[in-house]
Amino acid sequence: MSPLYDEHRDRGGPPTTTDAGAIDPKSPGSEEYFNSWFRDGNYKSHPAFTKVTSAPYPSAVTAGSKIEVYVTGPLDGPYSRISPDRSGSNAVMVPRTIIVREVLDANGKLTKITVMAKGLDGYNPALGDWYFGEFDPRGNVLLDAKGKPRTGKLTDCYGCHLPRAKDAYLFGVPDSARAR
């Protein structure tokens, strides 16, 4: 398995952040350990993550669903400049930045967690070094129809994200749903 961060780092303790809001390089780095951060909503209470939505907003991907977003780093960091309503923010996301999207059903129940994490240079150059992951509400990795984990360089995500190259391949949060 290709390293998302650095397979040789110490594997103790939770991730920490740098002043730029990125996961600290001293944090554990294997994809398996990385995926464990999403179990049981650990990201919600971890000080590295900031909730960037003031309220759930309608999903552009799944009709009837709503989205809540958490990002490593400050509320006014580079992610705050990116909006699905316009492109060309020229935002630059630092390696180890993590974006967590909670997918909620019409009743507000968590149905899925999707994650993007900015890997180190060279991790996934075809799409700005982004890692993708899909997890169930408990944080367990989802499997595709062939039983393969829905994590890593998920090329089926590229079609939507490639046109957003001038926005660090991201969509951000609608201005109306952004926490202030």
UniProtKB/TrEMBL annotation:
Instruction: Report biased composition (Basic and acidic residues) as residue ranges.
Output: 1-12
> Which InterPro entries does the record match to this protein?
Cytochrome_P460, Cytochrome_P460_sp
What are the start and end residues of every segment in region (Disordered)? 1-29
Matches recorded under Gene3D superfamilies? Cytochrome P460
Segments forming domain Cytochrome P460: 106-171
The residues the entry assigns to the signal sequence are none
Q: Which Pfam families match?
A: Cytochrome_P460
Q: What is this protein called?
A: Cytochrome P460 family protein
Species for this entry: Pendulispora brunnea
